[in-house]
Amino acid sequence: MDHSTISASVFHKLADRYREKYMDLTMYDDSYREFCQLLPQGRARVLDAACGPGNVSRYLMAQRPDLDLLGIDLAPRMVELAREAVPSAQFAVQDCRHLVELQRRFDGIICAFGLPYLSGEEARAFIRVAGQALDPGRVLYLSTMLGQDEDSGFESCSTGDQVYINYHSEDQVFDWLRRCGFTLLKEIRIPSPSAAPKPTTDLIVMAKK
Predict the structure, then answer these.
(1) Global pTM?
(2) What is the residue-wise DSSP string for the chain?
(3) What pairing do the DSSP bridges indicate for beta strands 162-165 and 153-156?
(4) CA distance 177 to 147
(5) Is the C-alpha dihedral spanning 100, 144, 186, 30 positive or negative?
(6) At residue 181, does pLDDT exceed 80?
(7) Which residues partner with 184 through β-bridges?
(8) Interval 107-163: pLDDT, tens
(9) For the chain, which residues make up each domain, given as ranges?
(10) 40: Cβ–Cβ under 8 A, 6 or more apart, which residues?
(11) Among 75, 88, 175, 202, which is 20 to 30 Å from 81 by CA?
């Protein structure tokens, strides 16, 4: 069973509802601004992996209108909404587990809460391939909900639809980054937003290849 594809179908169905709930959330903006500051000046190439309705891309482009930004998501409706929200960027329906298919290199890759929809093996593979797609010295931004493997499983949305949530520990994330040749630049822990289905602690990391 491909849990990511199942979750993507639910996000396609509920994309408009998700946009209403999270599009104007500002609690992560400081970390997005720090990510922008770590990018080179000029037309930096950025990938927004698992971009959702374009909330992160919209913030990045507001901070840095000069960015050459590509957003990808597996849910087609999310990509449609992202195009509406950020017409100056490019968006495509693409599985973040298959970054090699993009055949592009980047100055920065941001994956805001994409890891909860990737198994541990998939998350480790994503970090490895992201490192290969980054130019030397460039930055990777990751955020996820902290927990243990045994906490992972199907969880119900307010509509009754179910998505499979993978929980990853700090030690796992840090080990994956280290093994893939990244140097940790910043780590942040904050409580999950009040709109989240259940309370967790969010981990945000920025790392350099």
Answers:
(1) 0.95
(2) --HHHHHHHHHHHTHHHHHHHHTT--TTHHHHHHHHHHSPSSS-EEEEET-TTSHHHHHHHHH-TT-EEEEEES-HHHHHHHHHH-TTSEEEE--GGGGGGG---EEEEEEET-GGGS-HHHHHHHHHHHHHHEEEEEEEEEEEEB--GGG-EEEE-TTS-EEEE--B-HHHHHHHHHHTT-EEEEEEEEEPPTTSSS--EEEEEEEE-
(3) antiparallel
(4) 17
(5) positive
(6) yes
(7) 207
(8) 999 999 999 999 999 999 999 999 999 999 999 999 999 999 999 999 888 788 899
(9) 3-208
(10) 107, 138
(11) 202
Q: Has residue 196 got a pLDDT over 80? A: no
**Which CATH number fits the domain 3-208, given the four candidates 2.60.120.620, 3.40.50.1010, 3.40.50.150, 1.10.10.60?**
3.40.50.150
d(CA 26, CA 6): 28
1: pLDDT confidence band, cut at 50, 70 and 90?
Answer: low
Instruction: State the pairing for strand pair 68-73/134-145.
Output: unpaired
